[in-house]
Design a protein that fits this description.
With about 625 residues, the protein is of the alpha+beta class. Helices cover about 40% and strands about 15% of the residues. It has 25 helices and 17 strands. The chain is globular and about 65 Å long.
């Protein structure tokens, strides 16, 4: 796991470019505390800086890496889990290697096959590969979008790229103004789908994307890494029992592959079935695996007891971190760690846990991705079940939603039931675009139109006619849009801010392929969701544990905003110089604060989103559009 920043100047590097890129490199130094490198094109057109977090073969693999065959220059961030398979194939084609790391393998794979070589790479990565012979530049990211890569076209035709948004900003080569359209997406969804970002003029590569630039800085070719999900499995299980066996084997293989490390490893254990399964399979392959969980006093979603039960049953070395809420701690976390803002308070929990884990491990395994692959979200399944009753459910849902008090949980779900299938999916994909979702005050510069247009393109109404269509559409949306723009952003930034590497075995390419080949009813048919995964976990879990309901890593922000965060939130959001003032009317923010404070209405999601955006804009000097 690493970070890099680079610049292609068709007309030649400028005298202050090295200083500017050094500032960007320093802004993301947490991504690589174990090594630092720089390479400058002898022709004076290209410069790249790299920070290394040494995970495999620390004695080799320093970057930027010069290819042994064609002399291409590689800056690489991530982990390749099938590196040994690729190495064996490349050796048979005449390539030679030093050490056991994966950097040399990625370089040789690209020199041998070009961007098509990424189809065979299984792992998480962001890549920048420069060819001094013709001045071309290749940028690429992995299938899941786990590793970030930002890019901006400069006025002189130059191409600036970096692993983090804050590194781009630190160069002073890009704007510090919000993008108007991206801000609308952020308000509606709590994140910005790639290729958009909140910063005007800066893009982010979407999952599985690659882009090639010529020596003049023109983007000449774009493409995607092959997913192979629609093709399904060559030997699809014919029964539920066969599917359980196959899924058990696939997840076990993914965990084993992702445990490869020359540095200490631990598992983040939330108490749910996803991380519990990862921890169980990891402990079956290595003695004395370390597990860590976090507990928030006063939270109704505290899973620490369940996590400790799993740890005891699997014999792991377990630690529980008890986190108290302080305004200073929350604001410090957002300012320090949140490079690309997401409107999700769980970032604070994950960031706190990663910093605690960094005292014991450098590589972390987590359970992210299972809810998306196996339909684990309550809202997805609840609507799916109720829709069996057809028009009667639509009528009842519409009536109930109109009678349900605004701000109370459940109103949005009732309203969705009354809608056509495609409209329900759109409401789940962009919850804050829907007035039933609660609202964010009154945005003054944000329009819902680009969001609605995007939803109609990404989730065409004509393709969503039945319940299964809706679930497939939601899974496709989550894996291609919401997951890489939200949860995986949290995972990367929270872990890398603590200089640790977080891996997600349940999003392994082979697990994804199997999940897409299996009937939906095998995951949602029991009323709880993730039926297949629960059945696998039951083989390893304490009795009854696999049947526990989903909770999630949720700090008690609703209570905190009425307690330790109350005054700080009001001061920030109602200040005359609040950077979010052009986005939200002061009266709207004040009304939400008052309604939440008085109860029983719960507006902590909206308030946290506004507060996170405010803190991030202040920290980086960002102006409203």
């Amino acid at each position: 796991m690493c970070g890099f920043i680079g610049l292609l100047r068709p007309d030649g590097l400028r005298p202050d470019d090295e200083r500017r890129l050094a500032a960007g490199d320093d802004a993301q130094r947490h991504r690589g505390p174990d090594g630092q490198g720089m390479w400058r094109d002898p022709a004076g057109r290209f410069l790249v800086l790299h920070r290394r977090l040494a995970i495999r073969d620390p004695a080799h693999g320093a970057q930027p890496f010069l290819g042994r065959t064609r002399g291409t220059v590689l800056a690489y961030n991530g982990e390749v889990y099938n590196a040994e398979e690729l190495r064996a194939t490349l050796v048979s084609r005449g390539h030679a290697f030093e050490g056991s790391g994966d950097t040399d393998v990625v370089s040789a794979q690209l020199e041998e096959h070009g961007e098509q070589g990424l189809d065979a790479v299984e792992g998480m990565y962001a890549v920048a590969s420069y060819n001094p012979a013709d001045g071309s530049l290749l940028l690429a990211v992995d299938r899941n979008g786990e590793k970030p890569l930002f890019v901006a076209s400069l006025p002189d035709g130059g191409i600036l790229f970096a692993s983090e948004l804050r590194a781009m900003l630190a160069t002073d080569l890009v704007s510090r103004r919000l993008d108007r359209t991206a801000t609308s997406f952020w308000v509606a969804m709590g994140h910005v789908p790639a290729p958009g970002t909140l910063i005007a003029g800066v893009e982010k590569l979407p999952p599985a994307a690659w882009q090639r630039y010529d020596a003049r800085g023109h983007r000449t070719h774009v493409g995607t890494v092959r997913l192979d999900e629609d093709a399904g499995e060559s030997d699809t299980p014919r029964s539920f029992a066969q599917a359980v066996d196959r899924l058990d084997a696939a997840v076990a293989s993914a965990v084993e592959r992702q445990m490869i490390s020359d540095r200490p490893l631990a598992v983040l254990l939330s108490g749910g079935i996803d991380s519990g399964l990862v921890a169980s399979l990891a402990s079956a392959r290595r003695q004395s695996v370390h597990t860590l969980t976090i507990s928030f006093p006063g939270s109704a979603f505290d899973e620490s007891a369940a996590a400790e039960a799993v740890a005891r049953s699997r014999g792991t070395v377990h630690r529980t971190l008890v986190a108290e809420a302080t305004a200073a701690g929350f604001f410090d976390c957002i300012e320090r760690d949140m490079d690309e803002p997401v409107a999700d308070g769980a970032f604070y929990a994950l960031s706190t846990l990663c910093r605690a884990a960094a005292r014991h491990a450098v590589v972390l395994l987590a359970g992210e991705g299972a809810d998306e692959l196996f339909f684990g979200y309550d809202g997805w399944r609840a609507d799916w079940r109720v829709r069996r009753w057809g028009r009667a459910a639509q009528w009842a849902g519409g009536l109930a939603s109109r009678m349900w008090p605004r701000g109370l949980r459940g109103r949005a779900r009732l309203g969705r039931i009354a809608r056509p299938e495609w409209a329900r999916v759109h409401a789940l994909a962009a919850p804050r675009l829907d007035p039933l979702g609660g609202g964010w005050g009154v945005p003054t510069t944000c329009s819902p139109d680009p969001v609605r247009e995007f939803l109609h393109q990404a989730l065409p109404p004509e393709s969503i006619r039945g319940r299964d269509d809706a679930l497939r559409a939601l899974r496709r949306w989550s894996l291609s849009v919401a997951l890489p723009a939200g949860l995986l952003v949290k995972a990367d930034r929270a872990s890398m801010a603590a200089s640790v590497e977080l891996r997600v075995p349940l999003l392994d390419v082979r697990v994804r392929r199997l999940a897409h080949a299996l009937p939906i009813r095998w995951s949602v048919g029991n009323g709880q969701g993730k039926r297949l995964l629960r059945t696998v976990f039951a083989r390893y879990a304490p009795p009854g544990h696999a049947a526990l309901p989903k909770m999630g890593l949720r700090p008690p922000f609703a209570a905190w905003l009425r307690g330790p965060l109350r005054e700080s939130a009001r001061t920030a959001l109602l200040a005359p110089d609040a950077p979010t003032r052009p986005l939200f009317h002061r009266s709207g923010a004040e009304a939400l604060l008052d309604l939440h404070d008085a109860g029983p209405e719960d507006h902590h999601d909206e308030l946290l989103g506004m507060l996170i955006l405010d803190v991030w804009m202040r920290r980086h000097g960002i102006q409203a559009p």
